[in-house]
Amino acid sequence: MLFSSERRLLYLYLREGWRRFSRGLSLGRMAALRFAGSTPDRLIVAPTDLRAIDPFVAEEILQGRYPLGGRALDTEGDSPFEIDLPSRAFAMKLHSFTWLRHLRAVREEAGFVKLRQIIDDWIASHGRNMGGISWEADVVAQRIIAWLSHSPVVLRNAERGFYRRFLKSLALQVRYLRHIAETLPDGEARLRVRIALAVASVSMPASASVIRKASRRLDLELDRQVLPDGGHFSRNPRAGLELLLDLLPLRQTYVNLGHDVPSRLIPCIDRMYPALRFFRHQSGELALFNGATSVLAHELASVLRYDETAGEPFRSLPHIHFERLSLGDTAIIVDTGRPLSVDLSRTAHAGCLSFEMSSGRNRFIINSGAPKFAGERFRQMARATAAHSTVTVNDTSSLRFSKSKFLGPVVTSELPRVVVERKDEPGVIDAVRASHDGYLALFGLIHERDIGILNGGRLVRGRDRLSREDGREPDAAHAALAVARFHVHPSIGMRRHSDSEIYLTAPDGEGWLFACRDGEVAIEEDVFFADPSGIRTSSQITVTFTVESQPEIQWTLIREG
Prior knowledge:
Blueprint (H helix, E strand, L loop, with lengths): L4 H23 L27 H8 L2 E4 L2 E4 L13 H9 L12 H18 L10 H13 L1 H4 L5 H21 L7 H16 L4 H18 L11 H21 L7 H14 L18 H8 L11 E2 L4 E6 L2 E6 L19 E5 L2 E5 L9 H8 L7 E3 L24 E8 L3 E8 L3 H4 L2 E9 L4 E9 L13 E8 L4 E6 L2 E5 L5 E6 L3 E9 L7 E11 L5 E9 L1
Antiparallel strand pairs: 1-2, 3-4, 4-5, 5-6, 6-7, 7-13, 8-13, 9-10, 10-11, 11-12, 12-19, 13-18, 14-15, 15-16, 16-19, 17-18
Helix pairs in contact: 3-5, 4-7, 5-7, 5-8, 8-9, 8-10, 10-11, 10-12
């Protein structure tokens, strides 16, 4: 049933109100006394952390300087938990303790003493005050995993009093997380909570029934969130990487201790690897769709070295709706989907029919990606259709997002209908045709895109068409200004060859010629959100055309030399 915009908005408000009311009833009063219980006398195992360490970060933290969340804070000898923090992203990183991995580089006893003092400060200031960022579910889950994984460093030569305080706090956090797990909205955080509880069940003393229950509930969440094609239901390529960094050590911990591995864990990991390779450009970076941001090469390598599935990447991910075209050294990834639910639309991007194109080890056409640590304003800018390599109409996104603090940044417009058709002749052409109706309600227009690779990977040919719902060309009633954007990777140089042609040159000398004889072709300033060093300026190619008089444009990318 189709909702009008007003009815959909009313539905979303009622839905969110009911969710908050139900959650409030379930949680009641969040007091530490409510989660009191026994304290374990020891830890059984410390799971491995696959993430890389940086000795420089360890040294800085021990000196009271915290380089976290894209910011740096010098505490000048004070506890970081007692002073104002520079940003929400910084606070989440600080309270999650994911930075503990860097402290594996510590070798001197004074460093271990300082580390225990930091943790003692957290326990004293936040350990029983269950509110704020430090007790958000995802932060608690990451903290439990970090404390358990790096307990050998934390507890090295620790006195008995600290040992007991540490275990008591861990047990309290685990009990809290068990209680709130069912109240969480859909998303990656909900799965990470189940992973943390499974890690705790085998890393801390627990009965067989507790271990089985944590295993069963992890299985259920894995089946919900990791779809049959191996993609995470957020449609964010990076989500799979982040989850594998936690799931792989968990699998090995079950095996090492002789416990039954959750029945869905290994099949799930095996599904996720081909999906991860699907989004991987030959340069090693992941494609930038739906909130994905920069990925450090060693992060991806640390996960891929455990890949036992082998084989070429899939051509399609039919459940999260992406298509991959490949011929010769050229690869193109196309977004042919939409948010899979209201909850998941909180992080969804309006990038339907956007694409990324790479050749060899160079990324040429990309999306702007998501900022890793920037504030909310930049995160919302990155979600707009204009931040993606696709077509915008009247500078409007194909999805509309709520600006209500009550609803959060969910999609308030009708989710578009997307139609996809593949056209493949092995070794000759690899192509896809897709359309979406995200502009139908506002402008009465359907966007259709054809894109294909030909000539052994040396030619990319594209077509963008805006038409009425019945397929006919727009008339005066559908007057609009459309812009096809091609965001160019910051490492690629550009120079104009003619009014309709632009040269793209990679650092290694590889060159491609972009050509479009329809509309007005321009090189414009751009913003690249996903750079590892932070938001940076870049450039884009735009093709501007008037829908009423020029409803279709055709463009090509031709490899030079």
